[in-house]
Design a protein that fits this description.
Elements lengths: L6 E11 L5 H11 L3 E6 L5 E8 H11 L7 E10 L9 E3 L2
Parallel strand pairs: 2-5
Antiparallel strand pairs: 1-3, 1-4, 2-3
Amino acid sequence: MSQEQEVAQALAVVDGRVQGVYYRASTQEQARALGLRGWVRNLPDGRVELRAQGTRDRVEALIAWCRKGPPSARVTSVDVDWETPDPAMPASFVVLR
């Protein structure tokens, strides 16, 4: 199996103007279009956190999108940690409240 086909998982924390700008819903749309599993949620400090699982190239594509986000967002940084894939990840990509 090639690296692109192996299951990869990343935890990303997005900083900037990312709450109240449709960031979570837009991230969900992007992730579902890429066929990823996982979740996205707001953090109390104004950042957005997401965990995505799928092929490494598709997870990287989502992270690249997160660096810009939807039109109203102003992303200042995206911190990414690669993790061991969690078999208990949601079957689709969901917004956590």
